Amino acid sequence: MNLAVATPQQGAGEDTVTTGLMGAVQPEFLQLLSWDPHVRVLVLPRSHPQFSGEDCLVAGCDKMSYFAYQKGMCTGCTERWKKSGLPFDEFVTIQRPGRMVGFFPCQVAHCERPGRRATLLCSAHNYQRFQVYGLPLEDFLAHPEVQPLPALEPCRVAACDRQGESRDGYCAPHADQCRDLRQEGVLQDEDLWRLTTPAIAESRRVSLRGLPDRVVAEFIYGLQERIAQGLRHKDYLLRNLSNNARARQVTSLEELDLDVLGHNDRALARGFLKHIRRLGLSPETERHKDVWDASVFGLGGTFSFTGITQPWLREGAKAWALDDIPRRRGKSGKTTVQRTLKSLSRFSQSLHLSRDDHGVDLPVLGRTDITAFLGRLTFLNDRGDISGCTQYMTIRDTRRVLTRLRTLGLTKPGQPLHGLADDFALRQEDIPDDPEDSEAGRDLPPEVMRQLCANLDSLETVSSTDVRTAIELIIDTGRRPNEICKLPWQCLDRESDGSPVLVYDNTKNLRHARRLPIPGATAALILKQQQRARARFPDTPADKLKLFPASLANPHGTKATTYEWVSAKHRAWVKNLPAFLVPTVIVEDGNRATTMLPFDKNKIYPYAYRHTYAQRHAGAGVPQDVLQSLMDHREASTTQRYYRNPQELHQTGEKLQVTRSGQGPTRTLPSCNLAA
């Protein structure tokens, strides 16, 4: 049976789309899936980590285990074990009974028909053996008159690639299904049933038979792109989506009603459609739009310029984005660009509100408009509409873009910013201090830190060793949580005297390759984490590997875990710890007394460890200039806030590194590298 007969007629436009999609599929990917355009069945390779799970532990079972709760068994064996009442170790040694699944050739040499499980012969040879010759199997196979038979026509079910053995032209399983439906009186349209019923499920096989050419092309191309993203795919989920498309007789995945699909089918369909819609896009196709698809730049999401109302500023923002985006990768790169565009939208709104011409007449703009912008942000902060951090980031981002636009030559004749006055610029002194670094007083009391450090084992139990190590490094080094999460594998270095230093990027202030002296115990934590990361990804080059590789969609370890993930695990851990009791001064009947009261757990978050690091060093007498370099603060006034008593600013002596428990010194600190 020619498969083209079961494929709906397609128009020229659809043929063009289908050809484009299949043309974008790499031959190596088709080979990986053993793709035959005449058979139309994907065979997922068990050897590929993104297509397989662990082999089921039950003897004789060829299926895979995907979930931890299954204890190394497939779903079917897990259900059988629960019903058996047998101990796990005993159950897995029992041979799994099962039906014949897939094609098992007849034992007659060169016979192309499927054999039955009980007799190992096709139905014709089975009849011949028992009804004609009555011979034992071995003698029957050696009989000179027993001849091989050619294959039968394919099963009449469009999705099925088995041979039609029954009188109606169905394979044995589909013949049984059809008979049962007839007997129940629910088979009203057998032709429709043949078009829509799924193939017999087989491990690692996904039938695309009976689907239009365009749907097949969409399926294969979408799968290729998701595999390139590092995503893992299970055979039964791919089968479900294929069966849904066939049951609904769609001519494109875009016709699927995603709202009626299950969660997994909906997520997979959306993933396929996302890549299908992006095919053919490029920076050249996006640059003239007001909303860009960030995938053409290797990032996720979209970049919107619709919030910038002045044509000159919008064109300038696009020019800045085209220059800046290629240097950014990963989730943080996308976030940085989106945040900067939001900052420019606030700048645009200020110009729109403060000028009669709404900021469109570029040559008349000047320092007065910059002052109005700064005043508006201060007003919004005082009113509570924006945070101090948003005010800081908005001014910093806007200054960076305006400066960059001048260096890109956009103020030259014929360019969008030609005629812009020199005083229409933000100065360094216009940028306030980073409020996150300025929040001295948000450090955690020693009693809280001692209890947290004493319970780090439980953090590892409820999360992972990676999360525990990340939190320990945040505590020990005082770096911003995001800086620790994104550490490269090669983040540990040595000074000339052999003392260890942490090499990290201060991405918030655009200062890279910073060097922080660390104690030997902290260096040991990094060494152990390096060993774990290397064991997971032994073949990834050291300059590409991350110290904390993400656990999802990260086949090569080149993507770092996210701060959001670590923060969520940390929050759940703190929530389940016993109450933190700290000495608190209270007044009763006019008398002051100290009592132990619970500490607010909402104040225990990863960034608080940075403030705690700064405070314990200030309290231990570390000179202010040394602490400023340790914290990588831009302004000395930011560091000064951690010195609660004036006399602390005048203490002299050894430069100290104070441990997480508040003890020190551990060693003399060399000065940090302050070069950008």
Report on the structure:
With 676 residues, the chain is mainly alpha-helical. It is built from 25 helices and eleven strands. The chain has helices spanning 12-23, 27-32, 75-84, 88-91, 123-133, 137-142, 172-184, 190-196, 213-228, 235-247, 263-278, 283-286, 311-324, 330-354, 367-383, 388-407, 446-454, 456-462, 465-477, 481-485, 520-536, 563-576, 606-619, 624-631, 636-640; strands at residues 41-43, 54-55, 64-65, 205-207, 291-293, 302-304, 492-494, 500-506, 511-517, 581-588, 591-598. The protein has a three-stranded antiparallel β-sheet, covered by helices on one side. It has a two-stranded antiparallel sheet with strand order 1-4. Strand 10 (581-588) and strand 11 form a beta hairpin. The longest helix is centred in the middle third of the chain and has 25 residues, at 330-354. The radius of gyration is 34 Å and the shape is globular.
